[in-house]
Amino acid sequence: MHVTPEELVRDHTVYSCVMGSRAFGLATDTSDTDRRGVFLAPTPLFWHFDKPVTHVDGPAEEQFSWELERFCELALRANPNILECLHSPLVDHITTTGRELLALRGAFLSREVHRTFANYAFGQRKKLDADVRLHGAPRWKHAMHLLRLLAACRDLLRTGELVIDVGEDRESLLAVKRGEVSWPEFETRMTRLAEECDRAAATTPLPAAPDRARVEEFLYRVRRASALESGPYDEIVQGVVR
What we know:
Layout: H1 5-12, E1 13-19, H2 21-24, E2 34-39, E3 55-57, E4 63-67, H3 68-76, H4 80-86, E5 91-94, H5 96-103, H6 105-108, H7 112-135, H8 140-159, H9 170-177, H10 183-203, H11 212-228, H12 232-241
Helix pairs in contact: 7-8, 8-9, 8-10
């Protein structure tokens, strides 16, 4: 059995959504449409020395997909980009397995989000500081998304639920993107949000760790179902057992 990466995305995607500014409620007339997806590689592909790819860039522009196991691994590590994919309000394709994946959203959430979201924001802050030193101004679009991420983290820690649409904060964030906010004002807002995240982490309803066992049971079940659906492979195994 040989399946190309493009075929994995085309024929085996279980969940895909729109991300980026359109999902965040920050889209303008010039915004791209970023698509993210999850595909389930057929189980027999793992029985060869050459394993299926863990991710695929494309085949369409602004499209990126992960194999289900890799996606779950990253989500269990509280990767901000992955967790946000699970909470996109713009779902454009979903299967029964995809619905089961979305039903597991809570299993991936834990207090680890405080560390991972904060680390991601810190990395972005370092890039903004470098821009200011080299060019006299930051890339304001990146500054906007840093504030958006910190606000999402704060609210997640407070409520235990991740909401990625910025809602009524849209205009104030777009003002940052347009460069209408001074760098000192941006720094003040960023510092305040980071402190609010720290305070929320102290009383968050989120569990200390994600529910890895629940996710692993889901992955085992869908892998097994894929193997049983493979036809000849299953018949051979049954013949040997008998």
